[in-house]
Design a protein that fits this description.
By secondary structure, this protein is of the alpha/beta class. The chain is built from 8 helices and 6 strands; from the N terminus they run H-H-E-H-E-H-E-E-H-E-H-E-H-H. It has a 6-stranded mixed sheet with strand order 2-1-3-6-4-5, with helices on both faces. It starts with a helix and ends with a helix.
Length: 223
């Protein structure tokens, strides 16, 4: 059954990305499985909506949708992975400060997974509606974080954003999880919800699938 699902998955992806080298992704899976368990963190959740798009859409839902698709792609590809959250909720204990506890608990979750690598899914926002495109932030605490970040952004540019000229950035203390994580860790800002056209794309399930696959191809390209 698993082999059949993988075949179906490859056929679907090949249809969406005629230019994709699916064999490269497939050949990377065995090595990637032996090295990492990919922890997928859908940013925000619950009462923490994240940024708000120009049409009032909350970031948290888009993050979760892309994270769930990425999880399915990784699982069908045979790559070990875990979700920090799989529904619309925050991670906190009732007696603690919710905002701080949520971040602490996400980091604790990542640290609790043996040989983990973190992919945090977020969306961007800026005062200028002209800004668009994916950008990836990476932790300075592990040299492989930048490798992951560069491979993911290169993959996104190759498959869905060929005109994207953005460069990745090292995280500052403003990004608590990346700043404190010891394992390879990146935050993928998929696009700008302050940009009308990109905001619409980010809500489209087919676009989300393409984006999730671009992240998958980048993850596999790391090895």
């Amino acid at each position: 059954m698993k082999r059949l699902l993988l075949v179906i998955f490859c056929v679907v992806i090949a249809t969406q990305f005629a230019s994709c080298d699916s064999q490269k992704v497939s050949n990377s899976n065995a090595l990637l499985r032996s090295r990492y368990t990919v922890v997928i963190d859908a940013g925000h959740g619950g009462k923490d909506a994240g940024t708000i798009g120009v049409d009032g859409t909350a970031e948290k839902g888009i993050n979760l949708s892309i994270a769930l698709i990425l999880y399915d792609y990784l699982m069908v590809s045979g790559i070990n992975c875990k979700l920090v959250r799989d529904k619309d909720y925050e991670l906190y204990y009732t007696e603690e400060d919710k905002k701080k506890s949520d971040l602490y608990n996400r980091l604790d979750f990542v640290n609790s997974v043996e040989n983990s690598a973190l992919i945090s899914i977020h969306q961007n926002h800026f005062e200028s509606e002209k800004e668009w495109g994916c950008q990836v932030w990476y932790s300075k605490n592990n040299p492989e974080s930048k490798v992951f970040a560069d491979k993911i952004l290169d993959s996104v540019k190759q498959f869905i954003q060929p005109d994207n000229s953005r460069e990745n950035k090292e995280s500052s203390s403003a990004y608590y999880i990346l700043y404190n994580a010891k394992v390879p860790s990146v935050m993928v800002e998929c696009g700008f919800m302050s940009n009308y056209n990109e905001n619409k794309l980010l809500q489209d399930v087919n676009y989300q699938k393409k984006f999730a696959y671009a992240i998958l191809a980048g993850i596999c390209g790391e090895v």
